[in-house]
Amino acid sequence: xxxxxxxxxxxxxxxxxxxxxxxxxxxxxxxxxxxxxxxxxxxxxxxxxxxxxxxxxxxxxxxxxxxxxxxxxxxxxxxxxxxxxxxxxxxxxxxxxxxxxxxxxxxxxxxxxxxxxxxxxxxxxxxxxxxxxxxxxxxxxxxxxxxxxxxxxxxxxxxxxxxxxxxxxxxxxxxxxxxxxxxxxxxxxxxxxxxxxxxxxxxxxxxxxxxxxxxxxxxxxxxxxxxxxxxxxxxxxxxxxxxxxxxxxxxxxxxxxxxxxxxxxxxxxxxxxxxxxxxxxxxxxxxxxxxxxxxxxxxxxxxxxxxxxxxxxxxxxxxxxxxxxxxxxxxxxxxxxxxxxxxxx
Amino acid sequence: xxxxxxxxxxxxxxxxxxxxxxxxxxxxxxxxxxxxxxxxxxxxxxxxxxxxxxxxxxxxxxxxxxxxxxxxxxxxxxxxxxxxxxxxxxxxxxxxxxxxxxxxxxxxxxxxxxxxxxxxxxxxxxxxxxxxxxxxxxxxxxxxxxxxxxxxxxxxxxxxxxxxxxxxxxxxxxxxxxxxxxxxxxxxxxxxxxxxxxxxxxxxxxxxxxxxxxxxxxxxxxxxxxxxxxxxxxxxxxxxxxxxxxxxxxxxxxxxxxxxxxxxxxxxxxxxxxxxxxxxxxxxxxxxxxxxxxxxxxxxxxxxxxxxxxxxxxxxxxxxxxxxxxxxxxxxxxxxxxxxxxxxxxxxxxxxxxxxxxxxxxxxxxxxxxxxxxxxxxxxxxxxxxxxxxxxxxxxxxxxxxxxxxxxxxxxxxxxxxxxxxxxxxxxxxxxxxxxxxxxxxxxxxxxxxxxxxxxxxxxxxxxxxxxxxxxxxxxxxxxxxxxxxxxxxxxxxxxxxxxxxxxxxxxxxxxxxxxxxxxxxxxxxxxxxxxxxxxxxxxxxxxxxxxxxx
Lengths: 345, 551
Fold this sequence. Notes:
The structure holds two protein chains of two kinds.
Chain A: H1 2-18, H2 32-35, E1 39-44, H3 48-62, E2 65-70, H4 78-86, E3 95-98, H5 102-109, E4 113-114, E5 136-148, H6 154-157, E6 176-178, H7 183-196, H8 198-210, E7 214-216, H9 219-227, E8 233-237, H10 238-246, E9 251-254, E10 267-275, H11 281-291, H12 294-302, H13 323-341
Parallel strand pairs in A: 1-2, 1-3, 6-7
Antiparallel strand pairs in A: 3-10, 4-10, 5-8, 5-9, 5-10
Chain B: H1 16-20, H2 25-55, H3 68-101, H4 104-119, H5 122-142, H6 152-166, H7 168-179, H8 183-191, H9 195-219, H10 222-225, H11 233-243, H12 261-293, H13 312-336, H14 343-377, H15 383-393, H16 395-405, H17 412-416, H18 419-439, H19 443-454, H20 459-488, H21 491-496, H22 504-514, H23 517-550
């Protein structure tokens, strides 16, 4: 037993030791920033593979070390918001960069952000900025309807041009959507509620329920199930479809409601903000300047993470909806949807 | 019955002074301190915070009502996971016979495979089985099986993924009990032609305990069900916590965030209470049943006659289960790998998270071992119960509680390091180590402790000379299990997002979403390799230790 314990202790010591950080002292005469020991903490729900290269480049350019706290698909955005709220008396984050806007609006309303207009964001239209510059939008994603390109679904998916087509009886048992309680789906349901009003919203939810729509645990799960041929179609984010196409999966996407008289699709801007009481405010402002640069936005569009720029004309018809109102009505919209879709009456 | 060491042959170790003070109050306090402190900090603190959140919000108590939808959800959650437990026990029993009454390399390999499968992250295993399903989908479709999300086949797929991950629990628990079973009783039963029936009766307690443990673990693995649209209670709890929907929380005009995080946490707890009550009831029943149904009253630590060896059918079935549950998903992962990165690229990508996961493993396993040794030396009532309640609290709720507890500025050191993550993992899984320690206080061990007391040994000396030399493999396995579960823990890890150092689980979660399947596969295989290396080192130590004892 003693030998076992010795080995156990040795392994533990090695692992402890391997994780002790050795922080070399900055060279004499250099400021902390110049020596690279100043750091900035960012909380971000941007997909980690897209985020990390950007932050590494920022570190190289400025010498400021970036600590990124990211989330996962299972706990998208919500977990970072919970963390920010838990830390409200002792903020740890300097910058918040969310992949949507509804949580950002709520955080701004509750005083979690300080006003700051990033240096390279002068050309961002006022529509994509928070009141008093509490946040700035970086690129836009769009809700699309993903569909299977398998031959057996060819006829049914050909009919899909807008959200309301998902209520077509020919799609019964073949459609899915992300659970309204999680992710960007919450915002999408809220937008439908605000745009259509309660009676039309309830009617649409009843149609979806009649079609036995599946509520899955994430937008990527929708894209995966469609690519695997288990579903024919379902609303999701444009980047999930783009990833599937890039991986040569049997999936395609259509931007819904683009015809004359149609309401357009929901655009979901990413949003970055300076945290109130940020421990490293100057470094945070530098990072925000960097992130809000048009070149970064273009890079994310080229990587197919973002759909469109906030700076130019967006080539899709967008829902004319008040995001602040959506954030306000989100809980009621979610409850109404789930009451119908899950048969809670 | 084992031969007991002579009372005056105490080894000269650094603990010698403890022998002298063995009967003193301080000796008892020092012996109990690790178990008590670890349990209070890791399990007690989050529970106290949660209880305070509930008690301070009496307006939410109405959320305790069970709507028909929530009754259905509760039934579905328990139904699916009872099925998981049954399948896991069916898969694990033949392996348990080989592990408990097998000889030679097959038995040794089965121990490694049973523990090894448990160490696979459910995320990686699920991803592996998804690859299997993807590769075999044409065949399944031709056979008329539909994997429509939330359908019967899809739900059974989730059940199978969890059962094929957790079969090692019944295998290890029943196998250990079989090793300790008195062969005389089995031989006597064999003479009357009732060997199987009698053995089954004697193992009924461990089997029921295994069912309960698998059920408890499976209930919290909502990540396997949710992508398929199989809503479980955890989905509802998460939704209530994130949005405040379907709670009696007022909407103050702040939208989705609701009024306050503490109130939403309280509402989520109210939603969770029926499930917790049901699980608690099952756990109590299982514990009582295992105590009453265990017919063996003695601990046997010697050899057994060849007639009691595991049969050929058990060996074949056990090997088949191990191959199917472990090798098939891993092979599917390897087959699905499209490009293989260079070692340098792999190192730059994975070195930091692998180190982080290893660090957390070492911390958690070490502390769990200390707590288990302590709890087997001095009986401290309540620590096991507290740790079980903490486990039942669930990872996300515990993590939120820890975030709020560590919010004051003077706790930044804990937030900045992996301390919180380690505390959360111990809060979730410490009960495993403490349950193993509690087993050394069962009636079966009472004779040993009683005889030691007759020779004049105090509690600590009894532990060091009698209990630990016999029980240390089980105590170490319990601690290692806690460590390995911390490697694969998802719900608390996904909420705490440890960054100093980062851990592999969060990377896997990120890649699984990004459909970067190659990264996901490489990360999964590296996690398995990391665990394999640790298990190999432990096995090597075990063999060395045994050889020295033989010499």
